[in-house]
Give the backbone structure.
Amino acid sequence: MFRVITLALLSVCLATPFSHFACADERPNFVIFVADDMAWDDCGAYGNSAIRTPNMDRLAAEGMRFDRAYLTCSSCSPSRCSMLTGRYPHATGAGELHLPLPKEQTMFTKPLMDAGYWTAAVGKWHLGQAVADQVDYRRGSNPAAMGNAWVKALKDRPAGQPFFLWAAHSDPHRGYKPGAVNPPHDPAKVIVPPFFPDASRVREDLALYYDEVSRFDEHIGMVLQELKQQGLEQNTFVLVISDNGRPFPHCKTRVHVPGVRTPFIVRWPQQVQVGQVAKNVVSTVDIAPTVLELAGLAPLPDFQGQSFVRMLSDPKVQIRKYAFAEHNWHDYRAYERAVHSREFCYVRNWLPGIAGTPPADAVNSPTYKVMLEMHAAGTLTPSQQGCVETPRAEEFLFDVTDDPNCLLNLATLPEFSDQMQLMRAQLKQWQKETDDQFPGEDGLTPDGFDRRTGKRLIKASHPSFVK
């Protein structure tokens, strides 16, 4: 069997631009770091000088930073299921929060295992038990010890095999407690996005979030040091991503830029030149076909993503013009879809009568409580109203170059009518190709929490909750 696999690998290697590294024991190793609720621009590599992220910044300096990388969903488990299967959330059978990934879905770890890779998932799982046998090694960890758990996996791995490590943190997910890092971040120095009020409780909330992003970064550094000590640094493909936007209003669960643009940093010294910046669009649905191609394997027939291997040698290559994102049930009834290009973000909202309520953990946050108080007093600015106002627009269009925070809706302006028609057509085509359609409001899972208090509704139900 191993001889057959080897011959198959050799034949596939001839077709890849990295063929001289994709075969035998020279195949690359893979480490994918996944933050839990980290915004794309909350690290130094993407311009936030107020937050301590030296390891992510170093990876970007030593490799390639992607500036237009998008998630398929701003919701934890659907986003992770999408990454690992190379399919959009609604196509995985796990498109809503907590739904388990069905057994018939194949994660890209399975063909890696079949080809002789040792595969490990350490940290947050959140995929259900039906696919647990699609990795060799699975361990959890509390957030403070996550770096140690990742390093232990690398030390315990079997010798002589290439490996894949899914290093999934639970930082910077809520709830926050002081002491994640020492020294803590100073609330007076945090950068307050314009869609939040600049209030002391908001700054304190952001500072605690910064602390957990920084702890995630520290744990990345522990793994990088272990790779260096084991002599694996040169031929290990490292990717840093998040699963959705920061757990604050206007961010997590939304499908515009603050919700679904993700940090996306690749370092692979053996092949990726230092200091590269890719400005063309990529999607996290593209990770699965990319990893398999680099491992010398054919893509799975049901992949919906596209390999970005060619971008690794030339960041100007364009593999896709558009990325697509979806918002399904995450604590609250929802149905939104988005189309992202280099210049624009288009959002279609099927429930204009419902406010853009943030997830329940963010509803319970100090930031949202301040916003509700200011809303009642009539002191929120127009750009801060989006999570509480109704009715909401059915369509949004944002110029993401000039307005990356997605504050000014251009959808009704006559000069953008052609762009609106183009984006509508792209969404319609994608929905047709991926078999996605609005089931009607009565066909959606109802709210599971109170939208003002964040408390679970006694009569609420959901098909399945998994960790």
User: Anything to note?
Assistant: Residues 324 and 430 are 8 Å apart (CA to CA).
